[in-house]
Each structure stands twice: as C-alpha cells, then as structure tokens.
Write a structure and sequence with these properties.
There is one protein chain. It is built from 6 helices and 6 strands. By secondary structure, it is α+β, with helices and mostly antiparallel strands.
Length: 184
C-alpha cells in the first residue's frame, strides 16, 4: 500500500463486513510527530482465537481466497516507521485497531488523500454504517459525522453526486490545516 489512507480503506471495509453500524476513525498527530490512526467499530467482533491469528497473512475470514494481507501489511508499514499496531476485539461488541506511525522516519508512509478515502467510503455505503472522523494535531482539530450530515440533509441520500462533492471539498478544507504536512 502506498499510503495510510489505503490501509484505512481496507480496515474500514473489514468493519463494514463485520456488520458495524458505526465506524469511528481518528487520526491524531502528537507534538513529537507520532501519528496514531484508530479505527473503532461496533461490528460482530473477533473471537480470542481469531484475534491471535489475524496478524498472519494466512488468516482470513473470506471464502474467496486463503490469504488476508490488510492487517499484516499495516503492521509492517507501522513497524518500518518505528511504530506498531494494537488490536482489541470482543465478540458481539466490536473491534479497535490502533496503528502508530513515526512521521519523522524516512520509511513512514504519507497519509494520502484522506478526504477522498472518507468521502468514497460514505458514497459506497450511503445508508450504513455511520462514520465519524476526527483529525487532531497541534494545529487544531476537526470532526465529521455522517449522522449530522443526514440530519442536516433531511432525507437526501449521501450517494447523491452533489453531496459527495460537497463532502469531499469540506473534508479537504478541514483536514489540510491539521494534517497537511504529512499527507503527501
């Protein structure tokens, strides 16, 4: 994967497949240059046995193939930068995955186009789940919520092209001042 937003897309797709009704995504950059990416969902969760095996590329719940590279590649890329990945999951409750990236490392991936990734996730899943995005750094903080957008739109689908364009533009405008230095 060439950037962190592509990892995000893969991890969030796992949350959607797990039946999540809410996916919370946080990008938090601290003053020391450590970026913590957290994805929290209320999906079906994983058994302790699956949770232990999920970092192996030969573990997947898909029936169409025998390998699952998303979490192993995320772990590899976080560790290449000096960071790591932590997973917590409970059956019937949901899953939390945290990945730390040291942005001062030459091996740290750029964030990528987080705005486009989030807008596309919403466009691809306009009815469910709800998405919450928080981005924070010493430069400021922003929040995005599909629940709030749905309420403001009063029944207009999040899949409408104008809504997608508005979300994309708004997300770019809000994310850039907060994470701009590590996006590309």
């Amino acid at each position: 994967m060439r950037d962190i937003s592509l990892h995000l897309s893969d991890i969030v797709q796992n949350s959607i497949t797990a039946g999540a009704s809410l996916v919370e995504v946080t990008f938090r950059l601290d003053g020391a240059g450590v970026l913590r990416v957290t994805v929290r969902d209320d999906g079906c969760g994983m058994s302790p046995e699956l949770l232990e095996r999920v970092q192996s590329p030969f573990t997947t719940t898909r029936t169409t193939r025998k390998v699952g590279l998303g979490i192993p590649l995320l772990t590899q890329n976080a560790r290449l930068s000096g960071g790591d990945v932590r997973l917590q999951s409970e059956l019937g409750v949901g899953t939390v995955i945290e990945a730390d990236f040291h942005t001062d490392s030459i091996d740290c991936l750029p964030v990528g186009d987080l705005a486009e990734t989030m807008a596309t996730l919403v466009l691809s899943n306009p009815d469910r789940p709800d998405f919450h995005l928080t981005c924070a750094s010493p430069s400021g903080e922003m929040q995005f919520s599909t629940e709030e957008i749905r309420q403001a739109l009063g029944g207009v689908s999040l899949a409408e092209p104008e809504v997608y364009q508005w979300m994309l533009s708004s997300l770019r405008e809000e994310i850039e001042p907060i994470l701009g230095g590590i996006m590309k």
